Every structure is written in structure tokens, then in C-alpha cells.
Amino acid sequence: MTVQSTQSGRPKASCNRDMFTYDEESDLSICKAKNDSEVECGKGIKGKNPTNLNQHLSKYYPDNFKKVT
Question: Residue 49's domain spans which residues?
């Protein structure tokens, strides 16, 4: 008898995670989005909640937000 493993729960992947780097030590997600002068944002957002990350992108980087949604 073969037992297949299945993934339970909600998927962990989110499109916006490409725009952030998560630092476990400080529990901050660092924004990598670039502004008009090609400078990375660098804003640290507590945790890695996708809703908070999306809110940051939609408020400060609407063009990047449209790309990930």
C-alpha cells in the first residue's frame, strides 16, 4: 500500500514575495521595489503578512503592485 503525501492548508506562495526580502532575525520584510530614480525602497515591514506587503506596494509603488496582482 502506497501513501501519497498531500499538502494541507493554504498555499504559502504569494506573487508579492518577489518584491520583498524577509529577515528572520528581525522579523522584517524589506521592500526591494525601485522608485523613479532606480533606488530601492528599503522600508521594513513587520512580519511577512501578504496583505501588509500588498498595502505597501499599492500605496507607494502602484505600478509594481499592478505587475504582481
Answer: 15-64
